[in-house]
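Internal ticket #5521
Category: modeling
Description: The requester needs a full-assembly model to guide mutagenesis choices. All entity lines are attached below as received. Residue total reported by intake: 826.
Assigned to: D.W.
Attached entities:
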Amino acid sequence: MKIILKIERFNPETDTESRFQEYTVEVAPTDRLLDALIIIKQFQDGTLGFRKSCAHGVCGSDAMRINGKDRLACKTLVQEVADADGAVVEIKPLGHLPVQRDLIVDQTEFFSKYRSIQPFLINDDPVPEKERRQSPEERMKFDDATNCILCASCYSACPIFDKNKNFLGPAALSQGYRFIADSRDKGFENRLPDLDSPDGVWACQNHFKCTEACPRGIKITKRINQTKKMIQDHRKGKGESINDGATD
Amino acid sequence: MKHEFECVIVGSGGAGLYSALETSACAKTAVLSKVYPVRSHTGAAQGGISAALGNREEDKPEWHAFDTVKGGDYLVDQQAAMIMAQDAVQAVYDLENRGLPFSRTTDGKIDQRRFGGHTKAFGKGPVRRACYAADRTGHMILQTLYQQCIKNKVTFFDEFQVVDVILDEKTCKGVIAIELATGQLHTFAAKSVLFATGGFGRIFKITSNAFANTGDGPAVLARKGIPLQDMEFFQFHPTGIKGLGILITEAVRGEGGILRNNAGDRFMEQYAPTLLDLAPRDMVSRAIMTEIAAGRGMRGDKKIDDYVNLDATHLAKGVLEAKLPDITEFCKTYLGIDPNETPIPVLPTAHYAMGGIPTDLDGRVVIDGKGTIIEGLYAAGECACVSVHGANRLGTNSLLDLVVFGRRAGIHIGEYVKHIDFPAIPADAAAEAQRWIDRLTDGKTGPHGGHMAEEMQTVMMENVGIYRNEADMALAVEAIRNLRDRYGDVRVQDFSKPFNTDLLELIELKNMLDLALITAASSLNRQESRGGHSRHDFPDRDDANWLKHTLATLDGNQVNLAYKPVDTSIWKPKPRAY
């Protein structure tokens, strides 16, 4: 089938603002949308900029906004977004991050927020001779959060950033949960200042847009709410009030 | 722009990051990566990392080492395999202690499962040796190591593509890299350089490898006259999704999945009566192609793109969801099938380079059979050849190779840089790289690289694939030489500096063409069948003449071939049956 890709383009060297360009591509309905982009790049227009690597949804390189939804081009089949010959598929870069070139966005801020929640096991006990024991049930508590490929689809989909640019964001918070819910981790209090702040979990207002967008099926909103609950329990245990930073 | 580091690591997969953890503790270290580190292809590894922990049943590092040697069809250096198997146990515990969320046994230990070619008591039957985190073990290793690098404040240069290495006859002094965001060339002066750039499966048409797997490290070194070892041995994984090449982990068979032909027969009974579907990958891939050639593929038309079925429909309910969730989702996404109900259509897919940059046990690059090293030059991971995989790698040993030899190289570098001064870099160190880029971007019109890449991939797939012969390989050598000549005319369409991915792909194309030529020429010259190198015209292993490693040196459009002995100090080579 022939489809038309309407792609938002921007080259900082020559453009003052973005523009759309249309390409007609011959594809099969079961091809990946990434395949269509590669056909353009290889055989029609070498100047088109986009990231790609694993091409099967595990590296997180090719997140973009496809017909208004934030998703991976390699995990989107043509038939999911184009129903007939001549169908137009609109492709834009992810939102909430500065565009560097065409569909390539600058992820510096996204990763710096990820780093800020200390996404590594904190446990200063003496290193054991063998493994730290963990039951399958304890392991499953944070299982889906370990799926995160840091593709930033959730970061683009979350409406909170429209009002609060400093929000840590769904990916960083769910990765915070991945560690504080790990029975081997002892860094809850280390992460508390970032998680328990107006730009941390309390900025989330349960829009569920991140959960809908996540190509790895992580129940991100639920993990953020579980984190809120853990913070509340922790405060109650210490007889403190809850710093939810709510302003509205 | 100029930088100075005690250690520069090129590549941010498992080997690069593990080395960085070691070197950054004692030396000023920079990690250069063409992708954001968490995008590296280590993250696509699915099934497991082997270590004789004995958490499920008795196991010993000696058995693991023996399996590795036999699996590699005796082209493995045996002391290296023994060290890897011994270091494996502590390496896995170390990953767990650093936070890796392994799947667990009911008593809270790291769970282990069966994998191809891994046996108990020197071949008596399958053993549960593969430690795993569902079917995203590589993802968890990559994440854990990146997280540890964050904790240890390792310096990263994300999206920097290495284009040249600064080398004199005896010493490595740094690298030249292009910053993708700006198009600017950077010179990194360094006391030591570790290449950990991964594989180059993209030289083949159907591959499980990422687009980034273009062999940049080996190619940059090959152009400086560093020989590459055993490049004829390329692994085709038996179970790629038909047509796409996306990997379906061997763990499906480890959990009980069965390969079936169009009669519904479990055909591996004919090829490996003891290990059946868990025979090593080279044997299973050949069995599939033999079934297809005999008209027993699912279509039965004997064409090379016919396929067989991987049947997991009989597995206990919940096994796929709990232990193989990602491959279940791949099947649903790309095939529209549920593997609980429908067998998976599979075909071998180009997967792993056993060959690469020759190194010793500490990752130092060794350029001949006499043990001559280049000071300060290291390699680890898939781009390196220690050699622990010989002629065919066992499943799970790649992740193990990364952590064991990434760590050993990192430790050695940490010691090495203490005793030397920063190198003096010639003022024109970046001139050669600059000339290359200038030529590609000089504004002249020339052929675009897209068609050439496709031609190369097809030539390699059809002529240097699972079954090989003299005429096909000779044709491939000529075709690749021709493409390398045509590369002289190739030009970009994109003349911008920021994120010029057009230029990036032409640089990668050059790297792949160089490695394709070395692979084809090394293959053509080896007149025997061993492991992943299987010839119709020389169907038997020939230890008398060919129990030796290839060292291939690129010289213009020629590949000069030399050989060096294999370490067989522990086990005498025997016929390989399973």
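Resolution: model delivered.
Comment from assignee: Chain A touches chain B through 61 residues (CB under 8 Å).
Ticket closed.
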